[in-house]
Design brief:
The chain has 3 domains: 4-127, Jelly Rolls (Sandwich); 163-310, no CATH class; 323-480, 2-Layer Sandwich (Heat Shock Protein 90), CATH 3.30.565. Helix content is 52%, strand content 20%. It is built from 15 helices and 16 strands. The strands form 4 sheets. Strands 1-2-9-4-7 form a 5-stranded antiparallel β-sheet. Strands 11-13-14-16-15 form a 5-stranded mixed β-sheet, covered by helices on one side. The protein has a 4-stranded antiparallel β-sheet with strand order 3-8-5-6, with no helix packed on it. A hairpin with a 2-residue loop joins strand 15 (455-461) and strand 16 (464-472). Helix 4 (129-201) packs antiparallel against helix 9 (280-318), helix 6 (229-245) crosses helix 7 (251-260) and helix 10 (330-340) packs across helix 12 (366-386). The chain binds adenosine-5'-triphosphate (ATP) and magnesium ion. Adenosine-5'-triphosphate binds at residues 375, 379-380, 383, 410, 412-415, 419, 423, 428-431, 436-442, 465, 467. Magnesium ion is lined by residues 375, 378-379, 436, 440. GO terms for molecular function: protein histidine kinase activity. Its EC number is 2.7.13.3. Keywords: Kinase, Transferase, Two-component regulatory system.
């Protein structure tokens, strides 16, 4: 894309604020190496193309835009004389990629002073060596801070994710492994029982009867009610008595399993009625294995279901396979974050959810919002710990005019008035060295305010701190559309 060449007037160029105080010779050199170009409405250069020229607007209107995801987002629109853009990092040489980091177009016929990138870099180095050093320091200093912050951001997410997850996964996984081992042993014993049956001590009718009872037993196990410890112990006593009365050995050992499986004396009476007296003990033993294997399979089912729920929550939390920007239900995000952090929150902190489920989904960067919740919950937990360790964390959602409110309220130590103005500053922390970096709230602020155009408010007194995140219900783009 190039414009129509026009004469370069050193005086006109010298009047632009950027070239203030340049000598006539210097202005002459600029005009000699550069050129003035006039562009009709339309594109001037495109983001990502090699940055070959430095543009200074003499008159007209420019629009700068950047590609975010699949969209072009306008970042600046101005008619201010002297604004510049293009290869303005040329003086950093090959230490940074020399490509346009935005796209520029003009919305009316617009005149630019255009300088080739090499000439721009040359004159800066030659005419302003000290400014160049300062700029370099600023640029690379900021880059390394940004890098450190991003790194920490990712580590934080990863750290809380894996710490929470490994802890939470451990219990059901261990339970499933234990249950599988016991199941293997029980199935082995059943094979052994089968061998005895095969020796022909039972008639085909009795076998058919037993198998029928076995089927009905398995069905009962699936529907077993949950009993209170007192009810369970009463029933165990009754079942033990029944077994003793019928001369079945080790009744006290079998009774708890039967009760857990929902079997009672009525059912035992039915079994007794269906088989001859002499084979009753074997029949009960046989059914005991059936019940045990059913219960073990239930346990394996429960633990593996819990594992898969946890993995779902981890996926929801990390948003690994989801679009970075989409409509999201904040409650799902909050729940997955609370699930990930449940080990960190611990049993001594009560978590109360006051969700307004009628709230709509909002346009958001869900993985980043999860990072915000993580930081705020982390802070609430620390504050409660500092106040003795026991307390309540209330997570509330509500509508606040055209915004959605997510409030984290804790019963911790509170934020002293003299700290309130500084808690969002990067590196401000009251935690001991090595415990906090003071970046949690800084990161959260940038995610909520810069990326979501929302805001964070703080209200605090000892024992009652509320951090309120307000997010727009619709995106700015949708509103203007
Ligand atoms: N809910 C809260 N109750 C009391 N004080 C808080 C609360 N949230 C934040 N603060 C104060 O604000 C400071 C800054 O918080 P921030 O999350 O930015 O950093 P940090 O928690 O100290 O460290 P990091 O989050 O990096 O581990 C905390 O050190 C603490 O003094
Ligand atoms: Mg923190």
């Amino acid at each position: 894309m190039s414009g129509q060449l026009m004469p370069c007037n050193p005086q006109e160029i010298g009047a632009l604020f950027l070239f203030e105080k340049l000598t006539p010779e210097q202005l002459g050199r600029l005009c000699g190496a550069g050129r003035v170009e006039r562009f009709e409405p339309g594109p001037v250069y495109t983001e990502g193309d090699p940055a070959t020229c430095f543009y200074v607007m003499v008159e007209g209107t420019v629009v700068l835009s950047r590609r975010v995801g699949g969209d072009d987002v306008e970042v600046n629109r101005t008619s201010q004389r002297g604004v510049y853009s293009g290869a303005w990092q040329a003086y950093l040489g090959d230490r940074v990629p020399q490509v346009y980091n935005s796209s520029m177009r003009v919305t009316e016929p617009t005149r630019f002073f255009v300088l080739p990138a090499e000439t721009f870099a040359e004159v800066i180095r030659e005419w302003f060596p000290m400014a160049l050093h300062l700029l370099e320091g600023l640029f690379f200093g900021q880059k390394s801070t940004e890098l450190a912050v991003n790194q920490r951001e990712r580590l934080l997410a990863l750290g809380s994710l894996s710490a929470g997850l490994t802890h939470e996964l451990n219990n059901p996984a261990a339970a499933a492994v234990r249950a599988t081992a016991t199941l293997r042993e029980r199935v082995g014993k059943m094979r052994h029982k089968l061998a005895i049956i095969a020796q022909g001590s039972y008639s085909p009718e009795v076998m058919a009867n037993l198998i029928d009872i076995q089927e009905r037993t398995a069905e009962r196990v699936a529907k077993a009610p949950t009993l209170s410890p007192l009810e369970a112990s009463d029933r165990e006593d009754a079942v033990t008595d029944w077994l003793d009365d019928h001369d079945i050995q080790d009744g006290w050992r079998i009774a708890p399993t039967f009760v857990q499986a929902g079997l009672d004396e009525d059912w035992l009476d039915q079994v007794a009625a269906a088989v001859d007296e002499e084979i009753l003990p074997s029949a009960i033993g046989w059914l005991n294995y059936t019940v045990e294997t059913e219960l073990l399979m239930d346990e394996i089912n429960d633990s593996t279901t819990r594992i898969s729920h946890l993995v779902d929550a981890a996926k929801q939390y990390s948003q690994l396979d989801r679009a970075p920007f989409r409509n999201a239900d904040v409650h799902e995000l909050l729940d997955s974050t609370l699930m990930m952090l449940s080990a960190k929150i611990g049993p001594q902190i009560k978590v109360v959810r006051e969700y307004d489920r009628t709230l709509p989904e909002i346009p958001a960067y869900p993985a980043e919002l999860n990072q915000v919740w993580t930081n705020l919950i982390d802070n609430a937990v620390s504050a409660i710990d500092s106040a003795g360790g026991e307390g309540t964390l209330t997570v509330r959602t509500a509508r606040d005019h055209d915004r959605l409110l997510v409030e984290f309220r804790d019963t911790g130590v509170g934020i002293p008035a003299e700290h309130r103005g500084r808690i969002f500053d990067p590196f401000f922390t009251t935690k001991p060295v090595g415990e906090g970096t003071g970046l949690g709230l800084d990161i959260s602020w940038r995610i909520v305010v810069n990326k979501h155009h929302g805001t964070i408010q703080v209200e605090s007194e000892p024992g009652d701190t509320r951090i309120q995140v307000l997010l727009p219900l619709t995106s700015a783009e949708e509103e203007s559309a």
